[in-house]
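ugh ok fine here u go
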Amino acid sequence: MKKLLAFFLIIATLLTCAACGSRKPGNAQTPSIQGTLEKQSYKNEALGMGCLMPNGWTFFEQDQMSKIPMEDGETCVMYATASAREVIRIDFRPMESAQLDSLDLNQYCRDYLSKQDPFLSSEADPVYESYDTISVNISRQPLSGLMRTVTRSDAVAYFAAFAVKCNGYVARITVSTFHAERVAQIMARFYML
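structure:
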């Protein structure tokens, strides 16, 4: 009787191991980098944060996001806008562990911000631009970033970028606006999951 019970236990163990081995690795544990949209809320488990958009803001659909210019190797996972002049976006880029470990997040943000066309036109060069280190608190977690201020005779534009490392990716959150105080107001809509 004991031998029969031991035999069944061995069979049960082997079947359990075989079932585990047939699963695709990481499916259950690795959240999608895309995140989820529901009404005015965006949540991203991979990033560990979400944001609640104010009334009047809209999220771009997948077909709209496919038309957004992106850096090589990056995926835009969230794009929200109140108007053509006020935008929030989140981009992910996969990286090897060694690359992530040595990545300077502020330089990563600066490289991106330096390529942004502040007035959606190449007709006039900006007359002045500066970079400032800024910080926001997301659920009382400080997140440092950079803000590029571009001044032209008729307008001032603000571009803020924050980056975090997560699960084999670097994620960059960017805010574009014509009102400096809006950067903090917009980032206050983000929260940790």
